Amino acid sequence: MITTRQLIAQARAREEAMARVEELLASASGTAHDVDGQVEVTVDARGKLLRLWLAPSAVNIGEQLGSRIVEVAQAAMREATQDGYNKVALLLGEDMTSMIEQMTGMPAPARAEDDDPGMTVEEFQRQRAERLGSASPEPAGASAGAPAASDEDSYWESFDPASLRSDR
What we know:
Blueprint: H1 4-27, E1 29-33, E2 39-44, E3 49-54, H2 65-92, H3 94-104, H4 121-132, H5 152-158
Antiparallel strand pairs: 1-2, 2-3
């Protein structure tokens, strides 16, 4: 059972944490570049341009350069927004951050419906096998003499959580 003192302490801790949100958001930034590597933009969480870099070859883009810069800046802004939410989530927790997302009407970019869900573990293993030149992909963590991936214990012992995509 939670005591009144504990509730007061929790409320004070949340109040102090909320006071730090502004500081955290001020430190958030995002950087993006185009596929060709000719344009790179860095913005803060409010969209303020911090850095614009153009490769010498960017002049060859012609009339499309302006729209390319805007497109890259929008991607950098999504990155900055996500960085801000990541920092706030570490401070306030997932529930409070989700509430902030709902209040602002700006969901974290990683939660967007059109966000790329990443690749499956199987696809990662297949591509890894191709890169390494294997004829057939090995299950995660499998090696000579290792138990088959169908053995559930060996699967979880060799599971690499880094292979999963986080929404934060």
